[in-house]
Amino acid sequence: EDISTIFKAADKDNSGTLTVDELREVIEDILIRYPQMDLYLKSNRLFDVTDLFRDSDGNEREEVDIEGFKLALAHVDSQMKSLPATAQVAAQQGTYLSKCFNHMEQCKSNPEGPLRFRGSERHAFRPFRYKHFGQFAPLGGEQAAAELPGDWVSLGHSTQWLWYSVYASKQVSWRTRILVVSDWTRRKVFGRDSSRI
């Protein structure tokens, strides 16, 4: 349904096909409205959305019909996975929602989202975009593994200390940060307390 509406909005001359110029006119709104498209292009190192519409030999097409348009967008959508159920995702979603709630009245009169393909107005808000900051895994023996943006992987003691600093900085209050750091220091000096196990 949405694909047909987008296609009709982009097809200015009602020819039943989209030229590269017609596609470029709506692509910015498509990338804002569907962040998964932008992620797909970046992860596959495609520099332009028109790269999606190349033929099987890799040649650029002059025009794309509705079926080619649907196939390309369906392919992108099938490659995308849902967001992981982690605290990192939840924290970013919470920040996004609080921003939406705080600016609700302002966005009613001055919408910031992409154009609606059905109608002439805009969506009130931009869609949620998740930014992956990496992940840590403890390995035991004061060692950890980290996968960080840019396909950078780190192992060892220094990674454990990096994890400690990130974890402490994400605490809500200074009181909690001090308690967490003092607990780690006490454990380092005196060892783990196994009397309660």
UniProtKB/TrEMBL annotation:
GO terms for molecular function: calcium ion binding; NADH dehydrogenase (quinone) (non-electrogenic) activity. It catalyses: a quinone + NADH + H(+) = a quinol + NAD(+). It is an enzyme of class 1 (oxidoreductase). SUPFAM superfamilies: EF-hand. One of its GO terms (cellular component) is mitochondrion. Keywords: Calcium, FAD, Flavoprotein, NAD, Oxidoreductase. Gene3D superfamilies: 3.50.50.100, EF-hand (1.10.238.10). Its cofactor is FAD. InterPro entries: EF-hand-dom_pair, EF_Hand_1_Ca_BS, EF_hand_dom, NDH-2, NDH2-like_C. It comes from Escallonia herrerae. This is NADH:ubiquinone reductase (non-electrogenic). Residues 1-33 form the EF-hand domain. Belongs to the NADH dehydrogenase family. The keyword Calcium applies. Its EC number is 1.6.5.9.
